[in-house]
């Protein structure tokens, strides 16, 4: 069994080689420790300056996610339309980096998503249904922001036009 330092080095090595998020549960099983130990390892790595992003599907290194352009867009829809929203963004060349809502008490709340493809969408929707958790947008009558990563300037225009057509793009 690896000690804490070796385990954290191995977590970093694997994250550096992976193109997909790696879950704390996966690491826990591999290293024979609890999921909470892995969460603590990641917290220590972050405190030491490692740029690790936590998503709903696991961890990834920030530099793996930093390609293309970023733009925040405002959207509004009911929970039942979440899949349509995500599929529209991905189908038009976007990655949904996060979701942001404005909370009366806490201010801005941000949830990392990093949804890039249909499999990510399916995983997110499955997790949403299986956990009985509420979407952040439930706090704001469906109004929320997404940070979108895209490769070409025309991609964001296509994304916004498609969301507008579906009645999801928020407009005054």
UniProtKB/TrEMBL annotation:
Give the UniProt keywords, A-Z.
Metal-binding, Nickel
In this protein, which residues make up the domain named 3H?
A: 73-169
Q: Name one GO molecular function term.
A: metal ion binding
Q: Does the keyword Metal-binding apply?
A: yes
Boundaries of each Helix-turn-helix type domain copy? 7-59
Under InterPro entries, the record lists: 3H_dom_sf, 3H_domain, HTH_11, NadR, WH-like_DNA-bd_sf, WH_DNA-bd_sf
Asked if the Swiss-Prot or TrEMBL record annotates the protein with the keyword Membrane, the reply is: no
Binding-site list for Ni(2+): 77, 85, 144, 146
Q: What is this protein called?
A: Transcriptional regulator
């Amino acid at each position: 069994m690896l000690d804490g330092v070796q385990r954290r080095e191995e977590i970093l090595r694997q994250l550096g080689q992976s193109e997909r998020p790696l879950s704390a549960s996966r690491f826990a099983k591999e290293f024979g420790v609890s999921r909470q130990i892995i969460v603590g390892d990641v917290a220590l790595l972050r405190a030491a300056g490692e740029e690790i992003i936590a998503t709903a599907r696991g961890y990834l290194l920030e530099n793996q996610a930093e390609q293309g352009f970023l733009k925040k867009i405002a959207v509004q829809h009911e929970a039942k339309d979440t899949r349509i929203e995500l599929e529209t963004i991905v189908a038009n060349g976007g990655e949904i980096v996060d979701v942001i809502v404005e909370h009366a008490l806490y201010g801005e709340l941000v949830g990392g998503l990093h949804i890039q493809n249909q499999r990510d969408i399916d995983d997110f929707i499955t997790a949403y249904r299986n956990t009985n958790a509420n979407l952040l947008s439930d706090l704001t009558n469906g109004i929320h922001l997404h940070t979108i990563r895209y490769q070409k300037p025309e991609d964001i225009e296509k994304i916004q036009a498609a969301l507008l057509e579906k009645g999801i793009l928020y407009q005054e």
